[in-house]
Every structure is written in structure tokens, then in C-alpha cells.
TrEMBL record:
<feature type="transmembrane region" description="Helical">
    <location>
        <begin position="205"/>
        <end position="224"/>
    </location>
</feature>
<feature type="compositionally biased region" description="Polar residues">
    <location>
        <begin position="329"/>
        <end position="340"/>
    </location>
</feature>
<keyword id="KW-0812">Transmembrane</keyword>
<feature type="transmembrane region" description="Helical">
    <location>
        <begin position="50"/>
        <end position="66"/>
    </location>
</feature>
<feature type="transmembrane region" description="Helical">
    <location>
        <begin position="173"/>
        <end position="193"/>
    </location>
</feature>
<feature type="transmembrane region" description="Helical">
    <location>
        <begin position="87"/>
        <end position="106"/>
    </location>
</feature>
<feature type="region of interest" description="Disordered">
    <location>
        <begin position="329"/>
        <end position="360"/>
    </location>
</feature>
<protein>
    <submittedName>
        <fullName>Uncharacterized protein</fullName>
    </submittedName>
</protein>
<keyword id="KW-0472">Membrane</keyword>
<keyword id="KW-1133">Transmembrane helix</keyword>
């Protein structure tokens, strides 16, 4: 029994490491037969581009509402501004990737009538359109809001050349890659969230999640992408192949391994690998906040010194007043004793009075 289990594990490990036999497929994902492969000049493609535009507008509105609500909640929890922005982005990515996994694992094969009776959109094609619009939206956020041009171009090339439901070879490959990519994105964003929370900041959980992300990156971009996406069967789409190579080069430039090599000797190497470098506006804002906190500390210290000085003055005044009261009481008691001694008759006069009484 143990020998059979060991042999099965050995065969599985050999097939996993053998790149020539590397064909990973997740069960219950989209099948290529469910796609309706059509010519590139079909009118449905043009109408789907209009649907992508509406979906991008939907993602923009949804993201603005989500950011405002979560930012107000985190502000009430007294989380700093930099951590708030990082948590907002990480939770947004986790939410979409979780929804992406649920959509990919769904077994719905129905068609949706978005355009006309002759040209319906399948469940799988709608999923591709949703993913494509989301990555276009993410590219805009990275470029225009955060200034991360490399990450923005990665998302832009990914949405332009990989999310193409009208080529038959992508039906199963892209769905499998999206599944693995969603899991990897959830792992790395959970690492970011745990690093932003002070309770987990110095524990081993962020480092463990970061190691899992590094291994999954090797799995995706060293085994999966070159075997199944860069060197597949020959196709007639030269422009798409060039876009794939551009996307793969940009992904390697923005890889976590290059960032890890650059900041290996830094103290805060994990934060440098996980988060983009702060912009000039963020640095200036952090400086303003630091100066404001220092000024508040100075005001508090100054007020405390003033209160201490006033307390000392009051204590000295009360002490002087108590001393005066004691001195006045002491003077009054001395005057009373002196007056009593001065008013008493002498001893000779008392004896004379007693003798006179006896003679009588």
C-alpha cells in the first residue's frame, strides 16, 4: 500500500516537473467547445467593445463608492492614511478575485441576450468581458491615480492581448490562468492586509504568505505561461503573439523576485516588496502630518508646563497664607497672655487684705 502511494506521488511529481508534459487544467472551468469562435470583423465584437466601455464606467462608480465608505470606516477606527489606502486597494482586489473564482467555477452554459437574437453572448464570453473591463479599470487606477506605470502597462497588455474570447486556443488556457492568478492575487493581498494591521505586523503570517506568493509566481510565469501561452501551437495572429511577449516582459520586470533582489539587505524589505514606493505628494503629506503632530505635542507640553507653573504659584500663595494665619494666631495668643498677666493683683496686696479681715 505504501509503495503504491509512493509510486503515485513520484509519477505525479515527475509529471509536474516535466515541462513537456505540463498541462494543468482545473476541473469545471470553461470548455473551449462552449465558445462560439467567429471572425474578427463580426459586429458582435464591436458591440461587446461598447459593453466593455459601460462596464468600465460601472467599475469606476463602484470603486468610488466603495473607497469612500471603507475610508470613512477605517478613519473611525483611527488607522493612518497610508495604511488606509493600502487596505482599500487590497480588499478591492481580494473581492474581485473571489468573485472571479466563483464565476469561473460556475457551470452555467446559458446564453445572454445583450445584443440581438442572432448574436447572443455566452456565459463564458460575458466573463471574459467582465475581466477585460476590470483590468482596463485597474490599469487606469495604477497609471493615473498611483503613478505605477509598469503595473498599469501590465494590466493594459493583459486585458488587450490575453483576454480574447474569439480565439479557440484561449478557451481553457485563459480560464485556468485566471483561476491561478486570482488565487495568487488573494494570497498577496492578504499578506498586504496583515502587514498593515499592527496586530499582525511583526508576526510570521505576512512572511509565510509572501513565500507562498513567490512560489506561485514561479509556477505561473516559469512553467504555465511559457509552455501554454508563449509557445503553443502555431497561429496566424502575429500581433497577438507580439502583445503576449510584451506582456510577459512587463510582468517579469514588475516581478516580486526583482524587487526582492533589489531590497534584500534593507530592514523593511517586506514592505518594499509588497507596496509601491510613495509618490512625492504622499511624502509631502506625511511630512505635513509629522510637523502637525510635533506642533500638537509642543502645545500639549506647553500647556502642561503652564498648568504646572500655575499650580506651583497657587501652592506658594496658599503656603504663605497659612503661614500668615499661624503667625496671626500666635501673636494673638501672646497678647492675651500678656494682658492677663498685667491685669492680675500682686501678692503683697493680697496679704494685706487678708490681715485686715483678721483684725476685724
Amino acid at each position: 500500500m505504501l509503495e503504491e502511494v509512493a509510486n503515485s506521488w513520484t509519477v505525479g511529481l515527475h509529471s509536474f516537473l516535466d515541462v513537456s508534459e505540463f498541462t494543468p487544467v482545473v476541473s469545471n472551468l470553461w470548455d473551449k467547445e462552449t465558445f462560439n469562435v467567429q471572425h474578427i470583423n463580426n459586429t458582435k465584437i464591436k458591440k461587446s467593445d461598447v459593453l466593455i466601455g459601460y462596464l468600465i464606467l460601472f467599475w469606476v462608480i463602484l470603486y468610488l463608492m466603495y473607497e469612500k465608505c471603507l475610508n470613512s470606516l477605517l478613519r473611525r477606527m483611527r488607522i493612518p492614511l497610508m495604511q488606509r489606502s493600502r487596505i482599500i486597494r487590497a480588499v478591492w482586489n481580494c473581492g474581485f478575485c473571489f468573485g472571479s473564482i466563483c464565476y469561473l467555477k460556475s457551470s452555467t452554459i446559458t446564453t445572454l441576450n445583450f445584443f440581438s437574437e442572432e448574436q447572443k453572448v455566452t456565459h463564458e464570453e460575458l466573463g471574459v468581458i467582465l475581466h477585460k473591463s476590470f483590468y482596463y479599470h485597474q490599469a487606469g487606477i495604477e497609471i493615473f491615480c498611483h503613478g505605477a506605470w509598469t503595473k498599469g502597462w501590465v494590466n493594459l497588455l493583459f486585458a488587450s492581448f490575453i483576454m480574447n474570447p474569439y480565439q479557440e486556443k484561449w478557451c481553457t488556457i485563459v480560464s485556468t490562468f485566471l483561476f491561478y492568478k486570482a488565487i495568487d492575487t488573494i494570497v498577496i493581498n492578504l499578506c498586504r492586509i496583515s502587514l498593515c494591521i499592527p496586530h499582525f505586523g511583526r508576526r510570521k503570517l505576512p512572511k509565510l504568505l509572501f513565500c507562498i506568493h513567490c512560489l506561485s509566481w514561479i509556477y505561473l510565469y516559469i512553467l504555465f505561461v511559457p509552455k501554454l501561452m508563449l509557445w503553443p501551437e502555431k497561429t496566424n495572429y502575429t500581433r497577438v503573439e507580439l502583445g503576449l511577449w510584451l506582456w510577459f516582459i512587463a510582468e517579469c520586470i514588475d516581478s516580486v523576485w526583482l524587487r526582492l533582489v533589489r531590497c534584500a539587505r534593507a530592514i523593511h524589505w517586506l514592505e518594499i516588496c509588497l507596496f509601491p514606493p510613495p509618490t512625492q505628494e504622499a511624502i509631502e503629506l506625511a511630512g505635513i502630518q509629522k510637523r502637525h503632530r510635533n506642533s500638537l505635542k509642543k502645545v500639549v507640553n506647553r500647556s502642561k508646563k503652564t498648568e504646572l507653573w500655575q499650580t506651583m504659584l497657587c501652592a506658594v500663595a496658599i503656603k504663605k497664607k497659612i503661614r500668615r494665619i499661624r503667625q496671626a494666631k500666635q501673636n494673638e495668643s501672646e497678647s492675651v497672655t500678656n494682658s492677663a498677666e498685667a491685669g492680675l493683683p500682686g501678692t503683697d496686696s493680697v496679704e494685706e487684705i487678708n490681715n485686715e479681715k483678721k483684725d476685724q
